[in-house]
Amino acid sequence: MLATTTKGHMMKKTKNQIAAAAKVPAEPVSPMKAMAAVKECSTAKFDESVEVHFRLGIDTRQADQQLRGTVSLPNGSGKTVRVAVFAEGDAARAAEAAGADIVGTDVLIAQIESGKFDFDAAVATPDQMGKVGRFGKILGPRGLMPNPKLGTVTTDVAKAVKELKGGRVEYRADRYGIAHVLIGKVSFDADKLAENYGAVYDEVIRMKPAAAKGKYVKSIVVSSTMGPGIQVDPYITRNYTVAE
């Protein structure tokens, strides 16, 4: 049996991958059953990430149909997040106390200018955005530009750092109207993944653009890094940890 890679080349599936594919439910299932299936279908030798993919009835080419924000996962993301904070004075000290990995506007600017910077998320106080803004072309494409709509431009940097460290993840619908969101690791218990899924689902529904017409949630698929996609029943809107 052959599989297609992201570059269009054909590659032979392993015995484990074939066995995993055979375990995929034929129809959409409850979030709890989907998470159990994701765990059962995981074949990699590392702790795979688990993502949920929402196919939405929105046209992101329209300014009034954008979907972007952040949501805090109740059980964390399982990912170690390196947080950088553009701040000075008391705010910088608060960020350090909250566990930020790199703090100080001048320090961070020097790293960015040298091309040697290593962080997964960035926070800035409003007064520092004049300095940070000129690096938009570098930070923006990497998803590292502080943004007030995402809560990463704030006077309460300590809170932002703790939330990012504790499992706050970003969601954003792409040009096809699909939002891909990290909800944990394969090593998580199925009920923990289902709870995280529920938090994301509720947020996506809550943030439905007013201009969206017709069916909003068209389909939902959950998968691990190397595993097959499992269809989730989009009509289950509560009791996410119940198997049926």
Q: How would you sum up this structure in a few lines?
A:
The chain is α+β, with helices and mostly antiparallel strands and 244 residues long. The protein has helices at residues 15-22, 31-41, 89-98, 105-114, 129-132, 136-139, 157-166, 190-206; strands at 2-4, 10-12, 49-56, 68-72, 83-86, 102-103, 121-124, 168-172, 178-185, 217-224, 230-232. The longest helix is centred in the last third of the chain and has 17 residues, at 190-206.
Can you describe this structure?
There is one protein chain. The chain has 244 residues and is of the alpha+beta class. The chain contains 8 helices and 11 strands. A 4-stranded antiparallel beta sheet has the order 9-3-10-11, covered by helices on one side. A 3-stranded parallel beta sheet has the order 6-5-7. β5, α3 (89-98) and β6 form a beta-alpha-beta unit. α2 (31-41) packs across α8. The protein starts with a strand and ends in a 12-residue tail after the last strand.
Question: Which helices and strands occur, and which strands form pairs?
Answer:
Layout: E1 2-4, E2 10-12, H1 15-22, H2 31-41, E3 49-56, E4 68-72, E5 83-86, H3 89-98, E6 102-103, H4 105-114, E7 121-124, H5 129-132, H6 136-139, H7 157-166, E8 168-172, E9 178-185, H8 190-206, E10 217-224, E11 230-232
Parallel strand pairs: 5-6, 5-7
Antiparallel strand pairs: 1-2, 3-9, 3-10, 4-8, 10-11
Helix pairs in contact: 2-8, 3-7
